[in-house]
Amino acid sequence: MLANKTIVLGVTGGIAAYKAADLASKLTQAGARVETVMTEAATKFVTPLTFRAITNRPVVTGMFELASEWSIEHVSLAEAADIVVIAPATADIIAKLAGGMADEMILSTVLATGAPVVVVPAMDVNMYENIATQENIIRLKERGFVVVEPGYGRLASGKIGQGRFPENEKIIGTIQKVLGKAGDLSGKRVVVTAGGTQEPIDPVRVITNRSSGKMGYAVAEAARDRGAAVTLVTASHSLTEPFGVDIMHTDTALEMKKAVEKITAKCDVLVMAAAVADYQPVKVAEQKIKKSSDTLTLELVRTPDILAEVQGSFVKVGFAAESENLITNAKGKLTRKDLDLIVANDITDASSGFSVDTNQVTIIERTGKVDRLPLMSKREVADKILDRVVEILKNRIQKSKIRNQKHG
After folding, report:
1. Torsion 128-130-135-138 (CA) sign
2. CA 249, 383, 276: angle at the middle one, nearest 5?
3. CATH classification of 6-179, choosing from 3.40.50.300, 3.60.140.10, 2.40.30.30, 3.40.50.1950?
4. Which of 199, 295, 310, 385 could form a cystine bridge with 280, CB 3.0-4.6 A?
5. Mean pLDDT across the chain, nearest whole number?
6. Is the pLDDT at 350 greater than 90, yes or no?
7. 73 pLDDT tier (thresholds 50, 70, 90)
8. In this predicted model, what pLDDT tens digit does every residue of 96-131 receive, in sequence order?
9. Are 28 and 52 in contact (CB under 8 A)?
10. Could you give the dihedral angle defined by the CA atoms of residues 201, 204, 207 and 212, in that order, rounded to the nearest 10 degrees?
């Protein structure tokens, strides 16, 4: 998503300036070309050499640097940017942005650019909560700037409050979402399920499975980065929630079914990556079952088949985690559940099973097309799945146009 993107990173003079170095590192590792612009005050907290070493790019620290490739025309950097990120953004720089000032290179860049601008405030809690700062932030939002709210916790002053530099995952998630607004899923509503459901036996024990939820989370992030409005219905409680995605937490199959029924009423795509338990106890014990004999018998009943029972005109994508007869079993599920495509993987393969970051899948479409993919990251698999979804959506639009022309 960030590969070959030019990100202008504005670093201003706050104590959190050193954290921007880690942000620059992660953006560079993701394949972005990071052009760092530092205010004079920022250089008092961290040296330009730090950012140059991390990004392998020259650092701009003044308006008229003859050594800079951007010195010929001060708007060149603004025109090259795919996105401008100011992190950290001090109260002073926010006030200047709101006032349209241009006495720093980063301010001139913002005024001259047509690229989206992300502002990451970080400062003392009293400064952040000051009415002047809040009014300036509101003014920036009204102009279309994207503001990443600061975190809550202990600050450099020793106070506890809002003003901490946000986690990099939140900032990068914001960048990806902003860059993806014009993607091929722009304007589409995508629902993704993830994780293994838990069916209670008693107040302590549950029936569950080994699904980590990683595949579903990867699909949700990929859909977000392609411009979709994403809702993630998750039974996983151990993964970091992706930023820019609506989250609905569920535990049991029935809870997930109700959530999916509610949210798919107005969706375009449903990707059912969750591993829903096939059975649940007929009766849940009100108290913890005591160990009183060598055996314990549980009477189980089928859980709802969410993907088969949820109806709608949306694109339906299912998953088949199989230990044998991979293609045959996956094709059977594709037909029984009336899916547009199904993603099958062999869970006996350690590199494509549960709790790992890679997957090797076979994508089978309703048309009968079978595509065996090589081992790749789950994020790469997610994009391959969404590539097929985009094709299906385009084909539906084309068929609708043809029908309208015939009846017109």
Report:
1. positive
2. 35
3. 3.40.50.1950
4. 199
5. 93
6. no
7. very low
8. 999 999 999 999 999 999 999 999 999 999 999 999
9. no
10. 160
Which helix (H) or strand (E) segment holds residue 37: the answer is strand 33-38
- Please write the tens of the pLDDT for every residue from 17-47: 999 999 999 999 999 999 999 999 999 999 9
Kind of pairing between the strands at 160-164 and 151-154: antiparallel
**Residues 390 and 185 sit within 8 Å (Cβ to Cβ):** yes
Give Cβ neighbours of residue 188 (< 8 Å, ≥ 6 apart).
Answer: 227, 228, 229, 268, 269, 393
Q: For 255-287, how does the pLDDT look when each residue is reduced to its tens digit (9 = 90+)?
A: 999 999 999 999 999 999 999 999 999 999 999
Per-residue tokens: 76: 């060149």
Token representation of residue 164 = 């901490």
CA distance linking residue 58 with residue 52, whole number of Å: 6
What is the mean pLDDT of the segment spanning 397-404?
79
Which residue among 168, 209, 345, 359 is the active-site one?
A: 209
Q: At 342, which amino acid appears?
A: I
Domain boundaries, the chain: 6-179, 189-407
User: 70-99: b or e for each residue (b if 16 or more CB lie within 10 Å)?
Assistant: bbeebeebbebbbbbbbbbbbbbbbbbbbe
Quote the CATH superfamily of domain 189-407: CoaB-like (3.40.50.10300)
Q: How many residues in the chain?
A: 408
For 3-24, letters b (16+ CB in 10 Å) and e give eebbbbbbbbbbbbbebbbebb
- 209 catalytic, yes or no? yes
CA distance 111 to 92: 16
pLDDT attached to residue 76: 83
Using alpha carbons, list the distances in angstroms from residue 47 to 6, 63, 76, 111, 297: 22, 17, 24, 25, 67
Indicate the pairing of strand 341-346 with strand 6-11. Answer: unpaired
Q: To the nearest 10°, report the CA torsion of 389, 395, 398, 404.
A: -100
**Which position has the token pair 């790469």?**
380
Whether 6-179 and 189-407 share one fold: the answer is yes
